[in-house]
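Structure (tokenized):
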């Protein structure tokens, strides 16, 4: 009888523990899925960090290129100003030469007229 009681007790315990075992197996499966999802999220986060680092590097390069362009623009402005100054000097020289040529023309015409009067 004790053997039968023992078997009955085991049977009852087994029946009672079966849902708990099933739930435990489901929990383990869920936990495993969560671990996989967490690993996937970690990988996604790592990729995002790498992309962010790449974007920061690109931004630094753009800033550096922009700085170089500003320096080039300053050099171009100086060159244009220097060219304008030189052009003004050339215009002044040309104007002076034009006045001298007009003066010399007038003198030449006057001298020719005087020479004709003398003859």
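Design, position by position:
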């Amino acid at each position: 009888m004790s053997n039968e009681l023992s078997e009955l007790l085991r049977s009852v315990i087994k029946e009672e523990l079966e849902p708990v075992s099933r739930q435990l197996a489901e929990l383990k499966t869920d936990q495993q899925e969560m671990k996989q999802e967490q690993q996937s999220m970690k990988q996604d986060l790592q990729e995002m960090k790498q992309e962010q680092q790449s974007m920061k590097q690109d931004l630094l390069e753009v800033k550096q290129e922009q700085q170089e362009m500003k320096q080039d623009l300053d050099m171009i402005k100086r060159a244009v100003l220097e060219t304008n100054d030189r052009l003004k000097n050339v215009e002044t020289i040309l104007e002076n030469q034009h006045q001298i040529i007009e003066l010399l023309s007038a003198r030449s015409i006057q001298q020719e007229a005087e020479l004709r009067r003398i003859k």
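Reviewer-requested clarification: Residues 2-118 form the longest helix (117 residues). The chain has a mean pLDDT of 93.
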